[in-house]
């Protein structure tokens, strides 16, 4: 069941190649965030549980149905439950957290558990999961590690985050084992605050243009 219900979201993420990670500390910037993402046809956002406003941000961003909103840094079943009840369509964890994975499977919600080792990946696969987060990518060997892990785990795709930026993201995006890259480098509240999103819009457009050039 998990493979079937996740197919559509996995397919869409793989088309976009970018999964923005966003930590909300001021809800007044969410409308501008949505505008920029929609304008650039990046219809995904992962709202992290790194602030007390995560649930409110997920709820607000889900209302228009313009974006596929997910919850990130989900470490407990309660966080997963609260996020899904407020509109989250997928869940991302920093590790393999059985109670989070099991709850998401029960709710038919795609979950991306954080992995860094063969043991982590094997545990995720035992739940039927074939797309895993690889985190923190830079610390655990980056592309070299992903290529090595893709030997035994040839049927797994990776969503790397951590240490990926506008300078190196294309190396990851061009790798067949990678479904997409995630990070706050894609868009952030601080960048939107800088000049009402003008710089954030240009920066995101630049990332998209680079991806489109290599297609």
UniProtKB/TrEMBL annotation:
SUPFAM superfamilies: Aldolase. Keywords: Carbohydrate metabolism, Lyase. Coiled coil: none annotated. InterPro entries: Aldlse_KDPG_KHG (IPR000887), Aldolase_TIM (IPR013785), KDPG/KHG_AS_2 (IPR031338). One of its GO terms (molecular function) is lyase activity. PROSITE patterns: ALDOLASE_KDPG_KHG_2. It comes from the Bacteria. Pathway: Carbohydrate acid metabolism. Gene3D superfamilies: Aldolase class I. Pfam families: Aldolase. The keyword Cell inner membrane does not apply. Belongs to the KHG/KDPG aldolase family. Homotrimer. PANTHER family: 2-DEHYDRO-3-DEOXY-6-PHOSPHOGALACTONATE ALDOLASE-RELATED, 2-KETO-3-DEOXY-6-PHOSPHOGLUCONATE ALDOLASE. This is 2-dehydro-3-deoxyphosphogluconate aldolase / (4S)-4-hydroxy-2-oxoglutarate aldolase. The lineage of its organism: Bacteria, Bacillati, Bacillota, Bacilli, Lactobacillales.
